[in-house]
Amino acid sequence: MAAERVVVSERMAIWRAVLVGVGVLLLATGVGAFLTEVRPGDYPGVAAWLLGALVLHDGVAAMVLFAATVIVRRIDDRVPFVVLAIAQAAAVVAVIVTVLVVPEIVKQAIGTANPTILPLDYLGNLLLVLAGILAATAAAIVVALLLRRRGSRSRGTS
Amino acid sequence: MNLTWRLQRLLHQFRHALQTPSRTPRMAVVVGRLLAAAFLVCFATGIYSHLLQDPAPWMAFPTRPSWLYQVSQGAHITAGIICFPLLFAKLYAVFPQLFQTPPVRSFGHVVERASIALFVAASLVQITIGLLNTYQFYSLFPFSFRHVHFALSFVVIGSLAIHIAVKLPIIARYWRARDAYLDDGTLREGESASDPDVAFGTPDELQRRTGIRPDAGVTGRIFAWIDEKPTPEPPDRRAKVSRRGFLAAVGAAAGVLVAFTAGQSFRILDPLNLLAPRKNNTGPQSVPVNRTAQAAGVEEAATAPDWTLTVSNGERSRSFSYDELAMLPQYDAWLPIACVEGWSQYAWWRGPRLRDLVDAVGATAEAGVRITSLQQHSIYAVTEMQPEFVRDELTLVALELNGETLDLDHGYPARIIAPARPGVLQTKWLSRLEVI
What we know:
Number of strands of chain B: 11
Number of domains of chain B: 2
Helix content of chain B: 40-55%
Structural class of chain A: mainly alpha
Shape of chain B: elongated
Largest interface: A-B, 75 and 86 residues
Order of helices and strands of chain B: HHHHHHHHHHHEEHEEHEEHEEEEE
Oligomer: heterodimer
Radius of gyration of chain B: 29 Å
Structural class of chain B: alpha+beta
Number of helices of chain A: 4
Largest sheet of chain B: 5 strands, mixed
Strand content of chain B: 5-15%
Distance between the termini of chain A: 48 Å
Strand content of chain A: under 5%
Strand order of the largest sheet of chain B: 2-1-11-5-6
Distance between the termini of chain B: 73 Å
Largest sheet of chain A: none
């Protein structure tokens, strides 16, 4: 048993060494490509994007989400847990879809190089998709509540 | 010193407040391997697309199936879109790690945290600029998209390999569900405790050091208020509901995004295409346009009555007028325009074969062709085509599109159309073909 663990960890050590080697090689390639292909004048812009991504995600989005989950946890008593879970999942889907589509709506409003780029009514279609998510959520909650009631009734009678 | 301990206490309280049933090493492994797969699909297809556009001299590419590039680049963009919910989920699962106490334990720990920061930042930027590029929202980039996207792809995949190496014991430990959870749904902690400061003795240690009760002060009270309603933990059945709900949300987000955008790349989903930046069958002759004749500044040259296509091979040279091209044997090809931005559109193309034209000036079977457009200011104004594409029977100098004379925006008087090549290399408004 102990011998088997040693064998496994040796294999793992080899894999780790290979992965680190490949990773360092790729990272060096990336840095090399960056230094040779990207104009030095563009470096501050790239740095600002990298830093901005961390600040926006970890500093803003994740914190807002944290606050939201704390609030949801407080209303946990008044609403069945499964309903909260479904509603939260739906909110996650709706927010992610919206975040991806909003820049599209903005760019369309600014204008595109020709009418075949961003040709659809993205605001209208986003609302349509969100309405669909809402409808699916409502249906899922109804089904979950029916199942729950049936579950508690069968537990009550038996 | 007191300040250090107070900071540490704050970080510890924060980490504690962030605990949820879905923030476990097992969840990080489950989501992480999906994200790694999506990243690898993006990387492989991205490199393929890059090499097609910028090949080494010895490279040869498959010309069949003719939809190869359509599918590879469609997969690139679709997998990139799926990366959004997966990356958000992965970062959510490991978010408490951001508040590790103590924040820095050793030099190696600093390197590890810095490399994670680079990995996360590069991943977020990579998929975001990729998405915005498909919207042609270039004004948001204070840099060249193409070069930065290329360099970051290696940074992301290299960081991924190193990250997997560092976390390999945890990944192996939690790879299978039955190894990860006990029967009552609690996580088997095993050798890789998810909470590195368990051994550290917090918060008792912190209270002893600082002399401050955990619920004292403004932050202490806030965290105490949060802790009044702790998140459900196994064996509480709700923890399982919460965990599954989390995975369902990630899956649903990916599903919704794919359903409503992938139609731009895959025709079967076209009826659901509500949100993609491109739509099938829009534009002149039912084919979308990336660059119009006006934007390319070729309207005058392309409609000039004395336009000719010059085909040369060293000293030998022939010029074909539009009528002469139309007199040559004409062939039909059902081929997609497949753009690097992920959209594609099938159409009927008609015109003489490229190989017939270059054979008229004595090209050999191993010869490539340098293609020059009337367009002046573009990195794609002059491109080269490898012999395997030149020789392909489906590679045409197209004069017609969907049964009509090529629209000016689609490259009138003549354009290249070849199988399994990126749209930017399907040169419009042809001017010269040189055998090389």
